[in-house]
Amino acid sequence: MGEQRLVELRDLRVEFHARRGEVARAVDGVDLTVRRGEVLALVGESGCGKTTLARTLLGLERPAGGEVLFEGEPIRYDLGYLRSYRGKVQMVFQDPMGALNPRQTVYEVVAEGLRIQKLRGDEATRVSEALRRAGLRPPERFLQLYPYELSGGQRQRVVIAGAMVLQPSLLVADEPVSSLDASVRGEILGLMLELVREEGVTILVVTHDLGLAWNIADRIAVMYLGRIVEEGPAEELLSNPKHPYTRALLSVVPEVEEMEQQILQGEAPDPTRIRAGCRFHPRCPLVASGEAARLGIEERCRSEDLDLHDVGAQHRAACHALPTAAV
Amino acid sequence: MTYRSSAGSVPAVRGVSFDLAAGEVLGLAGESGCGKSTLAAALLRLLPPGTLVTGEVLLDGEDVLTMRPGRLRAVRWNDMSIVFQGALHSLNPVHSIGRQIREAIEIHRPKLASTELRARLGELLEVVGIPARRASDFPHQLSGGQRQRVLIALALACDPRLLIADEPTTALDVMVQAQVLDLLARLQSELGLAMIFVSHDLSTLSYACERIAVMYAGRVVEEGPSAEVFGKPAHPYTGALAAAFPIIGDPTFRMRPSGLPGDPPDPRDLPSGCPFHPRCPVAVAECVTADVELWPAGENRRAACIHVLERVGVPS
């Protein structure tokens, strides 16, 4: 089991200090394991803390509490450690145009990581190989091009090649296809699956897109206001969502027709003012419809905070309305 | 519609025809560079000077493209208005949203008394789901979804009959996207608005529109009732767009993302024959030279693919 765990987050907390002494609890007590060789999708609305969580995992933010374990060891924040850590954990950002230096050729972009990691040796071979694996074939055609000479899909492939050239164990991809054209999207997602299957890389993909999760994720963790509120195998979670927040998210995806739409009002709430009780209760359809009162749990929804509990096989959720399943 | 640039002429829209009835909702689907935003802007004659536009945009039989400036100004806002793509930043940051909406009303109805003006402002905000007391808020005090609502209120300020929305939900979160779609649907049914809804997301369009036209490389390649276009695409490009956003729960898509090789073509350098042939999974030798046009592809449906001819028979 220990072998399986590539990254573990333990009671992770990340805070930002806003004006007037307010503290935004962007990540507010997250326990999450990323297993070796899987694609884990971290899903939620903007402002839920998913990008902060990913940045903290990469060592870009320091936790206010809890820890990040990589291969069983807590990560450290000295420069030497971080440099070698970045060789093993790489990031792919949302907007490839923004992630690429417009004055660097494709070759320079991809070689940069090697130079920072001081892996000079057979640089040219490694760069060509990374481009080839990212689907830019033949690599020679692309080496001397600048980002503006590439299409959106090709740019994202260059970003992925730049990350993969270091042969990392983990790729963290933040909305990797949301800025791409619809017809190109599937190709990039297909490439990510190929990297998992053929190179054995592990992927944490941060997204608001449940369709993407259905396309490539083995497991899904749903985040709401700094916490994971539901997690489980992708197929199980999407076909049998338990948490009212996950159910609402799924009901508004146009591709899901059988569910009655539950449009939550307002937007992702304010992490400087997390309410007592279940953090979802102010927007929860069960509370609003009176269902929680009928079940006799409304008081607990409003006052009692709760952790994830088992609701099925490897399926956990944090909702007072859900009985704990015997697993 | 051809853009002129230092690098030469760029044909962005190459022969598009469609009708829109009063109160009808049409979806315009396609990817970046396909010409859909150019087309939307051309309907209101909003393209940059120097753009070569041929053809007609008939509004109740009157050609928008040849209207005198005064008439054009009256038609914009009063008859047709537009919510632009990426317009969340187009609100003036130093004026309250109320002032910005008031200005739009005043320009078109200069004689309105101030009490009526205030009432109309409150009504508009209410319609888009923003409490009237927030009229004194500045854009930065609003979330992305609320700013999009303000822009819709602005577009509605002069009671247009046609609203053009260019990617109105693309920059928004899933839940907020659903809220805005819900709002647009409500406006459409309550105010009897006709709408042209531009998006790259075919599933959103099929949900929001009665009819869909799919554009590729400056042309409409398929059109028809939205459920059928999305559910049973006649053009292979439509099929690829439909499959790009998987049906959750459908095993066909599970661990099988579906895309097209290559990229949308450069409008300056279009492929010969059917412009889709280099990326087409069902292309045959003929497609490289064939002159494709929109052929009938079932009831109220047309598609620009030579395979449609085999299926339906050559039209006489």
| Biggest interface between chains | A-B, 41 and 42 residues
User: Helical segment tally of chain B?
Assistant: 10
**Number of strand elements of chain A:** 12
Spatially, the strands of the biggest sheet of chain B line up as: 6-7-8-3-9-10-12-11
List low-pLDDT spans of chain A: none
Radius of gyration of chain B: 21 Å
Sheet-strand content of chain B, in percent, reads: 15-25%
| Uncertain segments of chain B | none
Widest sheet: strand ordering of chain A: 6-7-8-3-9-10-12-11
Shape annotation of chain A? globular
Please state the oligomeric state of the protein chains shown. heterodimer
Q: How much helical structure, as a percent, in the residues of chain B?
A: 25-40%
Short structural summary:
Chain A is an alpha/beta fold and 327 residues long. Chain A has a domain at 235-317.
Description:
The complex is a heterodimer of chains A (327) and B (316). The longest helix of chain A is centred in the middle third of the chain and has 18 residues, at 182-199. Chain A has 13 helices and twelve strands. The model of chain A has no long low-confidence stretch (mean pLDDT 92). With 327 residues, chain A is α/β, with parallel strands linked by helices. In chain A, helix 6 (152-164) runs parallel beside helix 7. Chain A has a domain at 235-317. In chain A, a hairpin with a 2-residue loop joins strand 4 and strand 5 (73-74). Chain A has helices at 50-57, 79-88, 96-99, 106-116, 123-133, 152-164, 182-199, 210-216, 234-239, 244-251, 285-288, 291-294, 298-303; strands at residues 5-17, 23-35, 39-43, 65-70, 73-74, 89-92, 170-174, 202-207, 219-224, 227-233, 309-312, 315-317. Chain A has an eight-stranded mixed β-sheet with strand order 6-7-8-3-9-10-12-11, with helices on both faces. In chain B, 33% of the residues lie in helices and 16% in strands. By secondary structure, chain B is an alpha/beta fold. The model of chain B has no long low-confidence stretch (mean pLDDT 88). Chain B has an eight-stranded mixed β-sheet, with helices on both faces. In chain B, strands 1-2 form a two-stranded antiparallel sheet. The longest helix of chain B has 18 residues, at 174-191. In chain B, strand 7, helix 6 (174-191) and strand 8 form a beta-alpha-beta unit. Chain B has helices at 36-43, 69-78, 97-108, 114-127, 144-156, 174-191, 202-208, 226-231, 236-244, 306-312; strands spanning 2-5, 8-11, 25-29, 58-59, 62-63, 80-83, 162-166, 194-199, 211-216, 219-225, 295-296, 302-303. Chain B has a single domain, classed as P-loop containing nucleotide triphosphate hydrolases (Rossmann fold), CATH 3.40.50. Chains A and B meet through helix 6, helix 7, helix 8, helix 9 and helix 10 of A and helix 6, helix 7 and helix 9 of B.
